[in-house]
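Dissemination and training. As part of the outreach component of the grant, students in the summer workshop were shown how a complex can be specified as a set of sequence lines and then modelled as a single object. The example used during the hands-on session is reproduced here so that future cohorts can follow it. Participants entered these lines:
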Amino acid sequence: MFRHILKLMWNKKRLNGLIILEIAISFLVVFAVTSVGVHYGLLYLHPLGFEYENTWGIRMHSGGPWEPEDALVVKQAMRVVGELDPVEDVAGMNIAPFRNSVWSSTVHNGDRTTQAMFNRATDGLAEMIGLQVVEGRWFGPEDDGLDWVPVVIDEQLREELFGDEDPLGKDISEPEDDLEPFHPKDTERRVVGVIADFRQRGELHPLRPYAFARYELGGPNERHMNSIHIKVRPGTTAAFEEELLDTLQAVAPTWEFSVKPWSDAREQMIEGLLTPLMVMATIAAFLMLMVGLGLLGVLWQNVARRTQEIGLRRAMGAAARRIHNQITGELLIIASFGVVGGALVAVQFPIVGASQFFTWETSIWSLGVSVVLIYLLAFVCALYPSWFATRIEPADALHYE
Amino acid sequence: MDEMIKLDDIGKTYRTDKIETVALQNINLDVRQGEFISVMGPSGCGKSTLLNILGLLDRPTAGSVQVEGRHVGKLGDRDLARIRNEQIGFVFQSYHLIADLTVVDNVEIPLLYRKLSGAERRRRAVRALERVGLASRIHHFPTQLSGGQQQRVAIARAIVGEPRLLLADEPTGNLDSHMGEEIMAILEKLNKEQETTIVMVTHDEHKAARTERIFRVFDGQQVH
Amino acid sequence: MLKNYVKLAIKVLLRRKFFTFISLFGISFTLIVLMVVSAFIDHLLKPSGPEKRSDNFLLVHMLILKSPDRRSSSQSSPGYRFLDRHVRTLQSAEKVAVFSGSQKATSFQEGRKIVSTVRLTDGVYWQILDFDFLEGAPFNSADERDGNFVAVISEAARIKFFAGDPALGRSIDFNGQSFRVVGVVDNVSHLEDSAYSEIWVPISTSRSTAYRHQMLGEFDALVLARNRDGLAKIKEEFRAVIESGVDFPDPKRYNWAMSGADTKLERIAREVVDDHNQFEARTGVLLAVVFGAMLLFMLLPAINLININVSRILERSSEIGIRKAFGASSRTLIGQFIVENVILTALGGVVGFVGSFIVLDVVGSSGLVPYAEFHVNFRIFAYGIALILFFGVLSGVYPAWKMSRLHPVEALRGRA
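and obtained this result:
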């Protein structure tokens, strides 16, 4: 039966060719949109590496370049804010999460080097945001007054830089520290601990190796600390922000402060990335509707023209079910050609590696989803015409003389 | 001889909107196995309707139909389809070959609805074509053949499943006398050698005279 | 004669209602998406708000600094010092405005937190951008020099802070500072990214004066040329400055700079194509990608329409054969098909036209792009209709013509 249908359609290839082309292009459209969706979906599945609920970020800067004495202002601000009633915990983290701000540096282990994203954090951060220490430890008072900088790396960085070796105690800086060439001392950066993968930019950005450098909150510090973060009691409303800002402004009247809850920043980031996807998906859905209607019409037309042939087959002993399956089968076979054609083009994208949306990982999924969706579309389009074909009375059909 | 098909007091009325057309009334017909009979009557008198009922393509609005002693009135679509496929073959006046398929693919069609392998189907189709003398044209398309050749393909298709009953609706209607002769010869040979029961609708007295019995219809009713 | 064609065409289209519906849906959908996308691009590249003179603008919005060993680099918006010394001094410029990017303004009114967008600007800003003032007037260079705490607010801000009442002379507080309202302007679309904001205040009202010494910061500069030719001269002059005339405050730290003076299109290209290391933005790549995507997108509806048309014609093959047999000439047959196609396209065009307005209205009010007003571009619409007519002729009338030349018997057999 299958070969019979193939022969039937091969002999009408010119007509079917356009339909195959249409299905192939539809496949590509669906593939493109699902690739973006799968890309974000897969990323979303990975754990964030930290907690963000009830945590607020406070950006603070003097308006001018960092002076070492500014560290004292930061320390004071943290102390004062920590005394406010709804505040449960305070810590410093130079770059706030859910922003596209990237500060990266090369790290070394013997011959191996890799690029890692860096951040600075105070001792209290790990507990405040739920960082999971899997090896070694987080920073603590024992790190005060050292002539090297303690560093905590995440598992991805550990994997890339150390493999099976033990990372604890190793120095990951290079002789000429290219992070801040104008700070000649404090170049040694030793690993004291490993945490679970940390995704500073959020669930929708690709994972990158990450490291925290310790920020010592003591006296003046040449390194800058641009934001501090607080954990507030659950249920604290935005009204507290006013009190918070007033308190901060009193510490340093010429400084600028701004408050943003981590969950707000996260929402903004997600919205920013997903809105274009939503728009694309809506347009693609309408396109599929249009294609589906077109296919339905063309197929129905096709069946209407073949009433004699269908009547004949019924006379030859085809049950209504067989006719139904034949019509549906014909469209599914045409769809298959379209899918194969479209897939051949689609698969070029991960091969070429054109962008982060078209890797092999995403393409396995999006190819699969696209195949299923296109077949589903074809199947649904064939339903009415197939039903229509079964309604053809052989007696009437053959009486066309 | 046993009965092949028995029509008992058959009536067929078409109802469309408000118009009622009576195509057949009080038809009684017994066709015995191995018979070669003709059905005759003027145009529009219901001959084709009668053939459709004989071929289980249409259900009568009155009366009963028995095939080899079994009542088929209560049978569902699937069972009727199977009987058509295994017991009955059709030949039409306008051949009704599928233009997009080759001759041999056309002949294979009835076998598609049985459980046979592709090779076996091909074998039987070629054999049927040999019996009608068209073995050399199996890969041609219908439009490349003459009218008589196309009708022979249609007959091959009708017999490829080795049916016990062959229904032919004006099989020579579109052909000249020479080709018409050829077709009649094939039908007679089938009837004699395979003992195929044949019911042929025709308006040609000469052709009808060659058959064993003539069943005449006029205005939907039997003429005795 | 034409009236007969039209009557017949309408009857035929009504007879096959489903097909007519599918064709109409395909045509109008194509037109709607074409209109919406071009309205968007139009709005982006040819703004109708304060940036209406953008054909004569260049924007300096990016600065890269590199260390002597080139291993360390910093990239961000330019700082005030860089713009003041190297952009304001461009001879070939008619006017130069320096202003900040949009920032967050937090206010508290009766315990309620209000978040708005605020922008710091100089006095020239108001001379280059053409705002629609509903009340009062902008602040000027004197206000900027004297550090007056004055503000211009948008209509949306007026509603947020003053419930829509006249705001002139009243005071508005945010980020811990207090300002006097001197002007109220019409809302600005988010897509006009140098102009949009809800509050504008002078740069000198910043809490500290440190910004004055920064090479990298959060400012942009808009350069107005006298005319289109002036744009090239400005770019040339700026390029020369970048390559040899930059005054570095600390050459041991950074001694190499790269920036660019971009038109609107170039600015988008620079951001999308992501190569910040050269003076000229790569608009070619951006345009190629956009056109490629649009082409692919248009291909699908086009093929869909062709398929439907071919199918429609095949169905009519017997009709053609019979009419031919009864004496219709090829010309009358084709004439009738052309009329059918034109009517179908016209109907689809009307639906598409109305649909475009509706969709643009919905998108505009959805807040996807705040305060944007989209307009239907009639020229693009005309092109769209022409294209669809073209496809209709190609896929419907041409096969019909071929069929009408056949012998009636062939046509009746349905061989196309």
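The domain at 34-56+77-223 of chain B is CATH 3.40.50.300 (Rossmann fold). Students were then asked to discuss how this feature might be tested experimentally.
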